[in-house]
């Protein structure tokens, strides 16, 4: 699991659970024998991954923690308006309690005064804002996740640091973004490298130019995208890559790294994915939670799935063909749907 996370760079977390949540789904797609407990082991025991914000909340390899320290400090010095209500004395008291009692979840804290929700997914407890504040500025880390219930602990204690890692400089962060993208994507563009970190584009552009000059990267042009420059490492360009087998079928999360960058997905697969969970029902085309189906190197269908946890059945609410329907493709997808259903039942058995 650690190798998969390191290769992808990060694994996005999302709350929607009409099927198994995205972070588990993404890892299952790469690791056929993946079990839900593997992620808990990595986060809470091995501590090889931690949670932080990339373009969204995600699991990130702990080895890269220092690359996120400058952003944590930026948030501390320039707090978002949503943290304006965090009282310094109350926050200090919360840290003392965690230091004394150990990790806490929002359920462990009883607030004397509740407040009105400012967001449908928010909490009426002021303590939740304080916990999130500690998380975003790096004082606290999510040490355990049970479903979507998070336990927060002191970062230094969780990682057993004798000394906090040193934050990277801007150029080092740009180097990290370039390295991460090359490893995960193979062929990269400035947009795909800096997805979620657009402020780093000028420095990344300089690094690319220097790498091209040293012949560490080669510029490539993709048919149909004349204005969008891409780069690739020479060794990968010259490698003999075995074509993907059309018999291999994967049901992808809409938050999968292959899918989440919509323009890149459309460029390479000629498929425009629509995420319609927040679209009115009568205006949906693919369905509430449509999942692209990858067969070999082609997106061939989109399935709107839902797990009926009472009956233990995976429901296909809508099946949209992207390619022409065929018996062989239908059979291959149905076979993968059966395997996918068994994966969904893991949380029911635990």
List keywords for this structure.
alpha+beta; 350 residues; three-stranded antiparallel β-sheet; globular; four-stranded antiparallel β-sheet
Overview of this protein structure:
Helices cover 39% and strands 20% of the residues. With 350 residues, the protein is of the alpha+beta class. It has a 4-stranded antiparallel β-sheet, with helices on one face. Strand 11 and strand 12 (313-321) form a beta hairpin. Helix 8 (170-185) crosses helix 10. The radius of gyration is 22 Å and the shape is globular. The mean pLDDT is 92.
- Overall pLDDT level: 92
Unreliable stretches, pLDDT < 50, 5 or more residues?
A: none
Given the helix and strand composition, which structural class is it?
A: alpha+beta
Beta-strand content: 15-25%
Shape: globular
Radius of gyration: 22 Å
What letter string, H or E per element, gives the SSE order? HEHHEEHHEHEEHHHHEEHEHHEEEHH
Fraction in helix: 25-40%
Describe the largest sheet: 4 strands, antiparallel
Quickly count the helices: 15
Let me know the number of strands.
12
Question: What spatial order of strands do you see in the largest sheet?
Answer: 9-10-11-12
Distance between the termini: 19 Å
